[in-house]
């Protein structure tokens, strides 16, 4: 087991199945160009071997499949079939929901029981303005179908000053009524926002601002969350829960257990570090050759983690998922 001096180790693996996406969200893709798959993306089989090797080398317990948008990837079925047989405690998926209804039978058959849906507004016009793609009604219908199929749903919203702050309460009410847990995600100083402080500050909405707004409508209490959780979680008695991933306001670096594998074979130990470690060439090697080399890279990746708080990074979220 690889552990650092703060007692952190990698428990949660996030795999970006593809960098392709059918959206071009303003906070992710400033130039508005829809993302396509990288030419050097790993095969589904290689990525599945990567997960298997990381389970053994790092002690990975939970897997989240991300993108880009994972549901657009032709590798999805093969990859999910393989990882579903690896005995992980939990496998989940993050999606923008545009193809959710279409892919739902595949997800259910593969054993997915939890999904996170990225949704920043319930206003159709604002939706098109932020996502620059897709259709709101299709997303909402996909979520309803997933709920009917028994999947647990969390909704991820990035509140943005001047764009969707007026949607905080409508989206919270919508989620509480349906049993979805809404997660507000503070804007992060990544990619183009890492070098443009003015753009970041003009859009940033803090934990305290969100709680103040919600407090005008509901009484809430802080709820328990796992030690390595990224979200500060709250209960609204008798109605449900919501959370805030408060990267700026309440840093969670001291307990971070996340490791990320990109679709092109790079390990990222920390979103706030530009360091990355290539493992693509190891994934075609037999286990006895791959594991020692992989463990050496994992020591480096764990060393990339910030000690206290996220300080911003040039790494672009669209490449390595959430």
Automatic annotation (TrEMBL):
Its EC number is 4.1.99.22. Keywords: 4Fe-4S, GTP-binding, Iron, Iron-sulfur, Lyase, Metal-binding, Molybdenum cofactor biosynthesis, Nucleotide-binding, S-adenosyl-L-methionine. Residues 5-224 form the Radical SAM core domain. Coiled coil: none annotated. Transmembrane segments: none annotated. GO terms for molecular function: 4 iron, 4 sulfur cluster binding; cyclic pyranopterin monophosphate synthase activity; GTP 3',8'-cyclase activity; GTP binding; metal ion binding. GO terms for biological process: Mo-molybdopterin cofactor biosynthetic process. The keyword Cell cycle does not apply. Its cofactor is [4Fe-4S] cluster. This is GTP 3',8-cyclase. It comes from Pseudomonas fluorescens. The lineage of its organism: Bacteria, Pseudomonadati, Pseudomonadota, Gammaproteobacteria, Pseudomonadales. The gene is moaA_1.
């Amino acid at each position: 087991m690889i552990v650092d001096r703060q007692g952190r180790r990698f428990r949660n693996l996030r795999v970006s199945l593809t960098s392709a996406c059918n959206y071009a969200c303003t906070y992710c893709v400033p130039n508005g160009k829809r993302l396509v798959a990288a030419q050097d993306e790993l095969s589904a089989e290689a990525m599945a071997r990567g997960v298997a090797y990381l389970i053994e080398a790092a002690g990975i317990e939970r897997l989240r499949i991300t993108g880009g948008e994972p549901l657009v990837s032709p590798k999805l079925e093969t990859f999910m079939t393989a990882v579903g047989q690896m005995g992980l405690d939990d496998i989940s998926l993050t999606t923008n929901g545009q193809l959710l209804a279409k892919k739902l039978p595949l997800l259910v058959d593969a054993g997915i029981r939890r999904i996170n849906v990225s949704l920043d507004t319930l206003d159709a016009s604002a939706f098109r303005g932020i996502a620059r793609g897709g259709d709101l009604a299709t997303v909402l219908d996909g979520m309803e179908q997933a709920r009917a199929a028994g999947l647990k749903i969390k909704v991820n919203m990035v509140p943005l000053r001047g764009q969707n702050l007026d949607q905080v309460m409508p989206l919270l009410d919508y989620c509480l009524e349906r049993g979805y847990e809404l997660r507000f995600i503070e804007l992060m100083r990544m990619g183009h926002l890492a070098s443009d402080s003015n753009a970041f500050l003009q859009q940033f909405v803090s934990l305290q601002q969100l709680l103040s707004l919600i407090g005008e409508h509901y009484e809430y209490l802080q709820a328990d969350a796992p030690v390595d959780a990224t979200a500060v979680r709250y209960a609204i008695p008798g109605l449900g829960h919501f959370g805030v991933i408060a990267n700026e306001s309440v840093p969670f670096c001291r307990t971070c257990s996340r490791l990320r594998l990109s679709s092109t074979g790079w390990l990222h130990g920390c979103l706030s570090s530009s360091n990355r470690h290539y493992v693509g060439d190891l994934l075609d090697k037999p286990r006895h050759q791959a594991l020692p080399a992989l463990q050496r890279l994992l020591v480096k990746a764990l060393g990339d983690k910030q000690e206290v708080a996220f300080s911003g990074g040039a790494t672009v979220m669209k490449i390595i998922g959430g």
